[in-house]
Each structure stands twice: as structure tokens, then as C-alpha cells.
Amino acid sequence: MKKLLKGVLGEENLRRVSGRLGGRRSANIKSQKLESEMGMEDSMEDSGGAVMLLPETGLVEFLHNVDEAKEVSLEVHRPVFLMFQEIPGCSVCTDFGKNVLSNEMIRDFIESEFVPCVINNRGTHPVDVEALRMFNEPALNNPVVRFIDDQGNDLIPRKDGVWDALGMLQRMIQAQQAFDAAYKPPMYIRWLVQSLQLEHPLYRHHFETLILTCECYWSGEAVAGAVAGVVSTEAAWMDNSEECVRVVFDTREVSLLELVKQVRDKDPKMGLVPCTRAQETELHRHEYRTLRKRPIAPIKSYKENKYHLKTSGQFTVAQIASLLPQQLARINACIAANEGYVHLLSPTQTLPARTLRTRTLSRRHKQPTNPPQRGEEAETKQEGFEL
Questions:
Q1: Exposed site from 77, 107, 214, 219, fewest CB < 10 Å?
Q2: Residues in Cβ contact with 28 at an 8 Å cutoff, skipping those fewer than 6 apart
Q3: Residue 363: what pLDDT?
Q4: Where is composition skewed (Basic residues) in this entry (predicted)?
């Protein structure tokens, strides 16, 4: 976070707020019992400089004083991610740290777009006690995250029981838009929300699958992956050994007909295999010829799927494993078209492979050297769907 603020504030101003970053007072977020058990007094780092991670706070590096957080918020013009958490806490508290705050993309979003601050609702430190009184928060409670401005005002109404990644991300985006009406979340966060919605029963109906037959699934994946609204692509074989691509798309971003038009504009020979009766009816109504075939198996060879990405030499196996399906599809298309793709990655994903291996162990790698600034426009069109 220090490197991030340096880019925003400059070296001189950073010195004035640098003492507030880096978890300098562990007593604010741990009970005395935990401190004595871990042998810590005033540091959350071991003798080698490695960050001591607490299960309740996940991977996020928090400030521990609301007044300091508000001052930093004023300096960097970002809302405060104010978490009231019981430390050490029950399974709800540790699960929130594990399932939400330990997600690297969510961690990146919190640290790069908010000023993170945690208050221990179990602690007796005067700073914690005063914060609980100021915000009328109960002690010994399950996690509650509030979003405030530099004056301490709530940006959106307080809400209990938001302990899942999708619900928390949706509230984070709402808070940012309340803070700045023109705010648009980074692409990796929009895609993370979309991926979580794909598995959620309330949003699953927005997603459909279409099979595209093609002469070469390498080019087929590149063509389909370039379409805004495509969630994933997968190379496969048809039952007659014809090559094809299985495409999952979000109908809120691209309709069936828009998808077909865009891929056919680039490859007119692509065949259309509808996966539902409704798709078949819609395509026939617009005079598209469909095929009554079905894929029998996906391609098992590692390099055959996302061929351009995996053979480019620009990503390690570990880096590829960290990519969302949307990132895989779009970056594969970008590399095939010789286009840039850095704006599609999270701050952690833009770090060199060697750095990724020590990302959670060393504070000096908390942010990339030149992270994108708040409000920086992406190089490609912003894609919109319901958050």
C-alpha cells in the first residue's frame, strides 16, 4: 500500500502518512491473550519482516485507527473500508477472513480502491472502545463492514450478515458509486462478480451456452474470446470429429444474435449449434442455419485450450491458474490479435512470477510498482452488467 500511496501522494506527502500504514500497532486488533500466545507486543512482523497473517483479517493489510483512516481517506480521496471484527473470533469471523478477505482479487480491490481499517470489537484498547461507541457497534459481534467517507459518514446503510464474497463485492461497488457517481470498478472485479453470479441461483438464468463449429478451434477461441460478454471458451470436438468451441456468455452484456453477428463477421464459416430450443427458435427466426450436432468431449491437451496464451511464453503455469475464465478468454484473444492486456489483470497478477511466490509473505510486495490510479480509463470499452 505504501507504493500505491507514493504514486498518488508523491514522496513528500507519503512520509506524513506512512506511519499509519503497515499494522504498526497490533494491540488494536488482537486480544491480550493472543498477543501473549504469539509473543508479540508492537509488531505484526516476525524478525525476518514477514507479515503475520490473522485468520480473521485474511490477506488484507489494515490500519487500526478510524481517525488515521479518515485522514488517509482525505489525502487519497478514497472511501474507508471499516471492518468491525472479533479477533480472535468464532467460525463466522474466521470464515469471513478465509473466504472473502483471503481472496487475492478482493484483497487487491480493498487495498487499491479503499482505505482498509479494522476495529477489534473484542478488544479493550481505547481506540477500539472509542470506535465502537462512535459508530454504536456492539461488542463481541460477527463481522460488520461499513463504508464511510473522510468525515465518518456512512456512504450506504449499514447491513448485518453480509459474509459472502458476492454480497460484499456488491456492497463495495455500491459504496464506491455513492462516493463517486462516475466510478467504474476495475475489469477484474467486474469479472469476479460475474463469475460468482454464474454459480448463484438468483443470477444463473442470465447465462447461456452456444457451440460454434470452426475449421480450427485455436482461431475459434480467439474470435469468440474477443466478444464483450463472453464468460468462457472451451475447445472441443463434435461427434463427427469436427472442431468446435463451447462458449458461455452473459445475456445482459451480449444477446445471442449479437454474439452470432460478431463471430460471423470475423469468421463467416462458423457453424451454430444451439444448446436450447429457445436458441434454435431465435436463430431460425432470423434465418440463421443451425446444426444438430453435439460435442462429445473437451480437448484434454493443456496447450490446445487457450493456445495463443499458453504458447506465448508471457505467463507461467501458476499465473495462468490465477486467471478468471473471462481473463483467459480475453487475454488469449488479445495475444492472438497482438493487443495489450495488462488492464485486464489485477494488481497482484501484474507482478513478476518470482514476486507472486512471496506475495503473501513480504510487505514490500503489497502493490505493483506502478499501479493504475483511481479513475484511470481502461484501454477497451467498459462492459456493463447488473452488479
A1: 77
A2: 64, 65, 118, 119, 120, 123, 125, 127, 128
A3: 33
A4: 358-367
